[in-house]
Amino acid sequence: MIRHDIILEDTTLRDGEQAPGVAFSKETKLKILDKLIEAGVGWVEPGIPAMGGEELATLHEMLERKNEVRLIGWNRGIMEDVAATIDMGFDAVCVFQNSRTAISLNRGHLFR
């Protein structure tokens, strides 16, 4: 029996690249996202918008699939980064102020 009260969140696309020698190509990132969606993962942390360049282009492409999965933008505790992530249309943002503080906000919390 499948439980519908369990929500899975995956950080492979962001956190996985922090391992030494790991850098996913755009194609690999999109394939990983496909597999996560197929597996029923409800929330995905696909990357860091402030990285810019290829990362930003890939994130924009992933955001086109928002009807299939909820996407969380990871941010440093810098207001400009958070604002840019919100403007991109992520479902939620995760803000790291330091190595011990994490704050996740959904759009409802941000715009009250």
Automatic annotation (TrEMBL):
Domain Pyruvate carboxyltransferase residue range list: 6-98
Superkingdom of the source species: Bacteria
EC number(s) from the headed UniProt entry: 2.3.3.14
Keyword Transferase appears in the UniProt entry: yes
Stored PROSITE patterns: AIPM_HOMOCIT_SYNTH_1
Pfam family, any one: HMGL-like
A molecular-function term among this protein's GO annotations: homocitrate synthase activity
One GO BP: carboxylic acid metabolic process
Reactions listed under catalytic activity: acetyl-CoA + 2-oxoglutarate + H2O = (2R)-homocitrate + CoA + H(+)
Tagged with keyword Cell inner membrane: no
Alphabetized UniProt keyword annotations: Transferase
Membership in a protein family: Belongs to the alpha-IPM synthase/homocitrate synthase family.
Physiological role: This protein is a Fe-Mo-cofactor biosynthetic component.
Name of the protein described by the UniProt record: Homocitrate synthase
Source organism per UniProt: Brucella lupini
